[in-house]
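INFO batch 0412 | record 1 of 1 | parsing
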Amino acid sequence: MRRMLCTLAVSAAILVAAQSAKAFSLLEMFPDVNTFEMRTNYPVTLTFNASLNPATVDSDSVAVVNEATEAQADADVTLSTTYKNNDTVIIQPQSTLVFGDRYRVVIDSGLRDIANTSFDGYFPSGYDWFVPNVPTDLARPDWDPQNFTGVFVNSNVLLGFNPFDPENTNLAERPQECPGINATGAWKIYTGRSDVLVAAVDNGLSRYDDPDLIDRFFINEGELPSPVDQNGKPCPNRDCNGDGRYSVSDYKFTPPFAGRGAADSISPEDLIDEYSDGVDNDGNGVVDDICGYDFFSDTNKALGVDEFPEGTHIDLTGKAAVGQADNGNGDKPGVCPKCGMKLVPTSEVAHGKESEAIWREKHPAQHERATTAPARQEKPNAKMDMNMDMGNGK
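INFO prediction complete | emitting tokens
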């Protein structure tokens, strides 16, 4: 009996080995979980240890799938040669992938090599997913030995790799090659959520319609009517454009804004002008706090003062915190590009005329509102981080 069991065990091992020998392997996958730079318009490259049967290489046998939506990316699938003839599959998406989303590479059993064997199912890194972690609107430095100024671009502060040789970056042995805070590494894991609010504690901003911020401003549903879709019906969770967040763009089809062209987009200031009614509709003690509130001048517009040197500093700090990524505008996104932003202008910095002590003495009622109301007006489940600039302008 013992001899029979040994014979069976050896036979099973030979069978497994034989089956393994009949499967081909994936040698390289770009990008993968360890890739430093994956832009949203880069192709996916798979290199195998066998020549593939061209008749089996198509979007049914090899695909890139968004893990969250389970949607397959429309892509052109072609063969190339790296080590052997027809050993490499190139998947070129027809449109850019979604920045910060996780994508899986799916290889079906229908993919065959010229010996009619299938893929063994193993990925070199141990993972079948990757994340497009670098948006197309993040500027890259230029190297010119005759002019070094091109190296110093603002976007460097976000990089976590050597911008001139990303995939040979070695942060453990050569950390000096990383010029920034490694936001690009963090973006593989998290790019923010619309219910996470960054409080911009600064002076004010110059405009509400900046393309990088227009859909990042927190708007208060307690002071606003529900937006409607193109059929005039309310939208689930007030998300009429389906981008997963409640923002000013959801009012595109809502009268009186319906029919506006792209050149005349809606901004939070339009909502303030249209729906300010002098009533505290949400009962939080602040009247018409539609998009933040300037508690120090007691107004629901957080616009800065032109005569003060830093009267519109939120233009910069806001973008640095939550500037939208991959929208074709600007040279870099914010550190948390999918978060929202709450405007909380400060007193002396906002107006440049009265110190807080003088302002408190002259306007005690407004000061009381300013020091208590910001916390009261938040939604119960909102999360808030602080982005504070308290420079004295000297």
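INFO post-check: Confidence is low (pLDDT under 50) at residues 1-20, 348-355, 374-394.
INFO record closed
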